[in-house]
Amino acid sequence: MKKLNKLTFPLLALSSTLILSSMAMAAEDKKTEVTPAAAPTATAPAPVAPPAAFTIPDPVATVNGTPISKAAFDQYAQQLRGKTKVDSAEASKSLVDQLVLEELLVQEANKQKLSDDPQIKQQMEMVQRNLLASTVVRKMLSANAPSEEAIKKEYDTAVAAMKGKEYKASHILVDSEDKAKEVIAELKKGGAFAELAKTKSSDSSAANGGDLGWFAPSMMVPPFAQAVAKLEKGKYSEQPVQTPFGWHVILLEDTREATPPSLDELKPQIAQMLQSKMVNDYLEKLKSGAKIEVKEIQVSVVKPAPEAAKDSKKEEKK
C-alpha cells in the first residue's frame, strides 16, 4: 500500500522559499552587473513551515442522515496503524472518504436486507465468536506480560544449551571411496587442499577451495560433525568420511567457543515463546474446568460403482 503524502504543506512552503530565493538571486545578478567587484553574500536557508494543525470533528460526516462518529473514525484509524499514518488533514480526509463509502455500502446492504440472509448471519456469528475469543486471550496476555526475570531465566537456559565449539573447515566431496582415497594420497604427496577441492570436489563450495566457513556441529550431518570434532587444527581426515551426500575429505582449519546471541537480541523471541506457553496453559486450564463432549466422526466406506466392481473382477480372472 502506498503511503499517503504527508509532505504537501512543507513542500508548498519550500516551493515558496525557492521562488523567493530565485527572485533574490536575480536581483543580486543585476547588482553584480553594475558593480562586478562586489563579493557574493551567503544567505541562510529559510525555515520550512511546520505542518498545519488540524482537529477531527464529531461526527466526521453524515450519510443520508446517518452520522459517522469520531469514535468510529478513531477505531478505523487504530485498525490501520502500521499500514498508513493519519498525521495530516489530507490523510484524515482520505480515511473519512473511505468511511463514507463503507456507510453507503452498508446502507445499500440494509436496503437489500442482506442481514437476513442465513449465510451472512452465519458469517457474522463467526466474526463475533472470533473477536470475543481473541479479546479474551489479548486481555489475559496484557494482564500477565512476561517479567524481566522470567525472560532472563529462559535466556540463561537457552545460552547454556548453546555452549560448545564452532568449527571452520573445508572439504572435498566425491562420489566414491576410491576417489576420496586418491585425494588423500595426493594430499600426502604435498598437494594443496584448496586446489584439489577446486578440481576434484563436486560440492558447490569447490569454487572457494572447499571452504565451509564457521559452523556448529548441529548444522552438519552426524558422520561429518563427528569426524570434524576428532580432527586436530590444521589436519585433514586420513580416512574418507561417508555421509548421505557422498565421500568427504575434511580439513579442520580452526575452532572457537560458540558465542551465543545477546539478551537484547533474543528478548523478543523469548517473550513471544513465553506468551505462547501462557496461552497454551490458559487453554488447558479452561478445558480442565469444562464439561466437553466431542462426538465421534463417522467414517463411511465408499463402495465401488457396479461397473467398476465388474471391471475389477475381470482383472482378477485374467
UniProtKB/TrEMBL annotation:
Residues 164-254 form the PpiC domain. The keyword Isomerase applies. Residues 1-26 form the signal peptide. Pfam families: Rotamase, SurA_N_3. One of its GO terms (molecular function) is peptidyl-prolyl cis-trans isomerase activity. It catalyses: [protein]-peptidylproline (omega=180) = [protein]-peptidylproline (omega=0). This is peptidylprolyl isomerase. It comes from Candidatus Contendobacter odensis Run_B_J11. The lineage of its organism: Bacteria, Pseudomonadati, Pseudomonadota, Gammaproteobacteria, Candidatus Competibacteraceae.
